[in-house]
Protein backbone atom coordinates (compact mmCIF):
# COMPACT_ATOMS: atom_id res chain seq x y z
CA UNK A 1 0.00 0.00 0.00
CA UNK A 2 1.36 3.41 -1.01
CA UNK A 3 0.62 6.02 1.66
CA UNK A 4 0.69 9.79 1.56
CA UNK A 5 2.41 11.69 4.39
CA UNK A 6 -1.00 11.93 6.09
CA UNK A 7 -1.27 8.14 6.06
CA UNK A 8 -4.05 7.91 3.48
CA UNK A 9 -4.03 5.26 0.78
CA UNK A 10 -3.84 7.13 -2.55
CA UNK A 11 -5.41 4.13 -4.30
CA UNK A 12 -8.66 5.15 -2.59
CA UNK A 13 -8.70 8.54 -4.38
CA UNK A 14 -11.67 9.23 -6.63
CA UNK A 15 -13.16 12.10 -8.59
CA UNK A 16 -15.76 14.12 -6.68
CA UNK A 17 -15.90 17.26 -8.84
CA UNK A 18 -14.77 18.27 -12.31
CA UNK A 19 -14.73 21.82 -13.59
CA UNK A 20 -13.73 22.89 -17.07
CA UNK A 21 -11.83 26.00 -18.06
CA UNK A 22 -11.14 27.14 -21.61
CA UNK A 23 -7.40 27.83 -21.11
CA UNK A 24 -4.58 25.58 -19.82
CA UNK A 25 -4.25 25.70 -16.02
CA UNK A 26 -1.01 26.70 -14.31
CA UNK A 27 -1.61 26.41 -10.56
CA UNK A 28 -4.34 24.98 -8.33
CA UNK A 29 -5.01 25.10 -4.56
CA UNK A 30 -7.87 24.16 -2.21
CA UNK A 31 -8.46 26.56 0.65
CA UNK A 32 -7.70 25.19 4.16
CA UNK A 33 -11.38 25.03 5.09
CA UNK A 34 -12.28 23.02 1.99
CA UNK A 35 -14.81 25.54 0.65
CA UNK A 36 -13.14 26.52 -2.62
CA UNK A 37 -10.62 25.49 -5.21
CA UNK A 38 -8.56 28.29 -6.76
CA UNK A 39 -6.82 27.93 -10.11
CA UNK A 40 -4.79 30.13 -12.40
CA UNK A 41 -4.61 29.73 -16.14
CA UNK A 42 -3.01 31.22 -19.21
CA UNK A 43 -5.53 34.08 -19.15
CA UNK A 44 -4.22 36.25 -16.25
CA UNK A 45 -7.26 35.36 -14.11
CA UNK A 46 -7.75 33.44 -10.89
CA UNK A 47 -10.81 31.19 -10.98
CA UNK A 48 -12.52 30.29 -7.72
CA UNK A 49 -14.91 27.34 -7.79
CA UNK A 50 -17.16 26.76 -4.77
CA UNK A 51 -17.55 23.14 -3.73
CA UNK A 52 -21.02 23.76 -2.26
CA UNK A 53 -22.75 25.07 -5.38
CA UNK A 54 -20.04 24.74 -8.08
CA UNK A 55 -20.24 28.46 -8.90
CA UNK A 56 -17.18 29.73 -10.79
CA UNK A 57 -16.00 33.24 -9.90
CA UNK A 58 -13.20 34.97 -11.86
CA UNK A 59 -10.85 37.17 -9.81
CA UNK A 60 -9.32 39.93 -11.93
CA UNK A 61 -6.19 41.83 -10.90
CA UNK A 62 -3.04 40.41 -12.44
CA UNK A 63 -1.55 41.61 -15.72
CA UNK A 64 0.31 38.35 -16.34
CA UNK A 65 -0.05 34.65 -15.69
CA UNK A 66 -0.33 33.69 -12.02
CA UNK A 67 2.30 31.17 -10.94
CA UNK A 68 1.57 30.78 -7.22
CA UNK A 69 -1.53 30.58 -5.03
CA UNK A 70 -1.37 30.22 -1.24
CA UNK A 71 -3.83 30.57 1.63
CA UNK A 72 -3.53 31.92 5.15
CA UNK A 73 -3.69 29.18 7.78
CA UNK A 74 -7.13 30.36 8.94
CA UNK A 75 -8.45 30.28 5.35
CA UNK A 76 -9.55 33.93 5.37
CA UNK A 77 -7.02 35.17 2.82
CA UNK A 78 -5.72 33.93 -0.51
CA UNK A 79 -2.46 35.34 -1.90
CA UNK A 80 -1.52 35.13 -5.56
CA UNK A 81 1.80 35.88 -7.25
CA UNK A 82 2.05 36.64 -10.93
CA UNK A 83 4.65 37.12 -13.60
CA UNK A 84 3.78 40.81 -13.41
CA UNK A 85 5.74 40.98 -10.12
CA UNK A 86 2.61 41.58 -8.07
CA UNK A 87 1.31 39.86 -4.95
CA UNK A 88 -2.43 40.24 -4.45
CA UNK A 89 -4.28 39.45 -1.22
CA UNK A 90 -7.88 38.34 -1.77
CA UNK A 91 -10.55 37.71 0.84
CA UNK A 92 -11.11 34.01 0.25
CA UNK A 93 -14.89 34.00 0.59
CA UNK A 94 -15.82 37.37 -0.95
What does this protein look like?
With 94 residues, this protein is mostly beta strands. 0% of the residues lie in helices and 40% in strands. The chain has no helices and 7 strands. The protein has strands at 25-30, 36-41, 46-50, 56-59, 66-71, 77-82, 87-91. The strands form 2 sheets. A 4-stranded antiparallel sheet has the order 1-2-3-4, with no helix packed on it. It has a 3-stranded antiparallel sheet with strand order 5-6-7, with no helix packed on it. Strand 5 (66-71) and strand 6 (77-82) form a beta hairpin. The radius of gyration is 14 Å and the shape is globular. The model has no long low-confidence stretch (mean pLDDT 88).
What structural category do the secondary elements indicate? mainly beta
Query: Shape from CA axes?
Result: globular
Number of beta-strand segments: 7
How do the strands line up in the largest sheet?
1-2-3-4
**Separation, N- and C-terminal Cα atoms:** 41 Å
- Which ranges are low-confidence, i.e. pLDDT below 50, for 5 or more consecutive residues? none
Tell me the Rg in angstroms: 14 Å
Helix fraction? under 10%
Mean pLDDT: 88
Largest sheet features: 4 strands, antiparallel
SSE run: EEEEEEE
Relative strand content: 35-45%
Q: Can you count the helices?
A: 0
Amino acid sequence: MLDTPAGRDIKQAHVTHQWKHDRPLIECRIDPLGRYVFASAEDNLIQRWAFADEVKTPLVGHESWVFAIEHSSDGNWTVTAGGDGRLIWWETAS
